[in-house]
Amino acid sequence: MTAQLSNPQDVADALAEHAYLADRGLATVLHLSLTLEKPLLLEGEAGVGKTELAKVLAEITSGRLIRLQCYEGIDVAHALYDWSYARQLLYIRSLEAGTAGGDAHRTLHELFSREFLERRPLLDAIEHDDAVPPVLLIDEIDRADDEFEAFLLELLADFQVTIPEIGTITASSRPRVILTSNRTRELHDALKRRCLYHWIGHPSLEREIEIVLLRVPGVPERLAGQAAAFVARLRELDLAKAPGVAETIDWAQALMALGQEELDADVVDATLGSVLKYHEDVERVRDRGLRELVGEARSQ
Amino acid sequence: MRAGDAVTRRVVTFGRILREAGLEVGPGRLQDALRGLDAVDLTRRDEVYHALRCTLVSRHDEIEPFDAAFAAFWERAPRPAGQRPPDLGLEMPNDPAAPPPPPGLGGEPEGVEEEPIVVPLSASPEELLRERDFADMTSEELVRLRRLMDDLAGLRPLRRSRRLRSARDAGTLDLRRTLAQAMRTDGVPLERSWRKPKLAPRRLVVLVDVSGSMEPYARALIMFLQALVAPDGAARHVEVFAFGTRLTRLTGHLAGADPAVVLDRAARLLPDWGGGTRIGESLAAYNRNFGRRGTTRGAVVVIVSDGWERGDLDLLDRELDELARQAHELIWVNPLKGHEGFEPLAGGMRTAVRHADRFLEGHNLAALEALADAMRESGSGRLARTG
Known about the structure:
By secondary structure, chain A is α/β, with parallel strands linked by helices. Chain A has helices at residues 8-17, 24-35, 50-61, 76-79, 85-97, 104-111, 121-126, 146-158, 189-193, 205-215, 221-236, 245-257, 265-271, 279-298; strands at residues 40-44, 65-69, 81-83, 117-119, 135-139, 160-163, 167-170, 176-181, 196-200.
């Protein structure tokens, strides 16, 4: 069975057991989301662990993770259900070949039965017979358009959907919902009102070192400390895309694979690409003086 | 609930303070906050803080005012004088620190001379208004102008969306409809239905210079922008920023029926109104806080400025370059361009020439019509490139 999650400390402990170090704020908010059964809207820079939180939540509650990746133009047929038209057509053909002049009404009924229904993530999350409520991750909701947001709003209000040919389906137990947004646009207020809101920032240096040590088993402690300090320093520069924790972890893995015990300027220069994803940023950091930055990180 | 009523009262009062600070805190949110407090340890500051924050805050830029209010109300920290961020649009009639409304709003007696009429006598008053320089207009005329602007602003640039709509001619096969029709012909799909990409409004980002040299035009332009933002459906496809020496996001503050109120509010929001210009730094702030997060991508970006840069031209060059590379189209509107003998001499203008896709005038309504046309063309003319 899953860990008891009766207060924020329990939640933080359970997350930590699955290698996710959450600060008190995030643990409190997640605890409230579970207790009040409200969806949790997470915003923050890329690579701070928004999506990861949903994955780990599924693990600690031993629920199934159902993920809906949003993109522009996503609609009900992609997110909720669709009919399998090809199979329906084939079925009609096979009926014609077999019994000519069957009961047309029954045929129609059969054609729009569950057998021909293609289930998409949202239907999966609502109509489930799991013992534990699944975790529904609605990822990058800001990429979907207004129409989809309005549809989602309705769905999150009462967790039921109506399929005209089949009827209304209501969730037997509400899924735990996490929405993430990169804030490319402001979400509709009504949608936000349904959710608890939390902003995940970059972690403190100490916390980031802990995260690297936890996520990259076997990494030398000194290397983890210096890498985290270097990345923290990069975030202070005016970069097009400041590296997130995800980048620090990738980089620490790369450095370890190269057998580094600590940072040195040449290796940093060679591996800068796993931390910075824009050419201009790499240039800017080099202009700023790589040796100097590495020196600062080493003196941490 | 522990200490039930007292906590409820405190939270309700706190909600009122937050509303005053510009946060949208309704009864539903307060109820969530109370339920939230019930579920945490009330003796722990961080848990109380986050229980209130996640239920009462819904936007990243609300966190700062929330923190200030939290400290003031729950921890009795003295509120530093003048610490209230001006970006909140607070209504503070008795605040001595609030800048006075911009000159010229309450009618400007001096400098308004009867203009010699050079247009044919048959021209309608609207016709006259169209050609009149914004700088010479009285506030009354500006308000009349607003009606004309409303018509103009209804037209928006379009882009091809990934969402499909029904179409008459061949596109993507609409299986659902084709099958439904086939039922009528014994399951033989005689008639086929099609779907095609729908056209959706393209995002529009407008950056308006409100520095001293632009002041006569900024009022009219802000009215034009209000007309753009006002239709509520379109609101989320338009982003408006004002800049002088720093950048202020105006989008949320432009909604409101009365242009005079909006102008007044804008003037209070903008400590820069009528001040100097740092275009490069302002664009850098825009790129850093909005552009890189995706606001610019695929958008039509309109910069309204005379290009009198008092800051670093290299910086302006870099930031414009970034902006132009991400935007669908960069349109530069210069109200001074409409004046005879204009040459792009201002250093900033010469930099802008290298990056902007188009240059337009912006000194009167006729020029804004040209701008509206340009925005529309920009949307439909290049479908193939972004679709």
